[in-house]
């Protein structure tokens, strides 16, 4: 990790508009109020999101389903603050994500939100252990042996402790996705957002990743997962269907309680 471990960036709680989460480890609530996103193109403005209103509840496993280009990833980028909205508001618990500046967003996201990408986004020159430690360093939360022990525990949770000193290139795609999940949990965020996390995986590995997400929901996390796979709809607590930048349907799954009773294979 090198020079990162010696740094001490400002904590989100020290910055204006960002509050520390007093319910660390528990799920977070999310509110989207009249969220509009317009991208400027050579042909003019393209409205990717058209006044989205939605609320996600603590401890919920929410699926956002839609075809490619429907606005799913754009919606996730509004929640995580990776992209700026054109108008509207996004609140995560008591934090007005829409009003934070870039530095505040980066620090808040690192401490309060775990993000899992389809393409894993692991640092290729770092070991799996250092990849999991990276968010702790970034948020100024690195605490020597305690942090290393937590990173090892997270890698053990996803079945990869024995590979912790390997670089990402020496493990499979499914294993890399597990590392990405462990990294997303490094700072014990109340909410995890996953953008097409099983899209690049075979069906058996995708099922293992999905079961891991179910285990996290049982632990109390709020989990938001974007997918184009409608066969997963009954396995979420609730589903938002999005078409052409608008939510066209909200459905609560009758099978969600049964699915969340699946045997916990990950010890959480």
In brief, what are we looking at here?
The chain is built from seven helices and ten strands.
Description:
There is one protein chain. This protein is α/β, with parallel strands linked by helices and 268 residues long. The chain has a single domain, classed as P-loop containing nucleotide triphosphate hydrolases (Rossmann fold, 3-Layer(aba) Sandwich), CATH 3.40.50. The protein contains seven helices and ten strands. The protein has helices at 72-80, 102-112, 128-138, 144-157, 173-184, 203-219, 256-259, and strands at residues 30-41, 44-56, 61-65, 87-92, 95-96, 113-117, 191-195, 222-227, 238-243, 246-252. The strands form two sheets. Strands 6-7-8-3-9-10 form a six-stranded mixed β-sheet, sandwiched between helices. Helix 3 (128-138) packs parallel to helix 5.
Task: Record the SSE blueprint.
Elements: E1 30-41, E2 44-56, E3 61-65, H1 72-80, E4 87-92, E5 95-96, H2 102-112, E6 113-117, H3 128-138, H4 144-157, H5 173-184, E7 191-195, H6 203-219, E8 222-227, E9 238-243, E10 246-252, H7 256-259
Parallel strand pairs: 3-8, 3-9, 6-7, 7-8
Antiparallel strand pairs: 1-2, 1-4, 4-5, 9-10
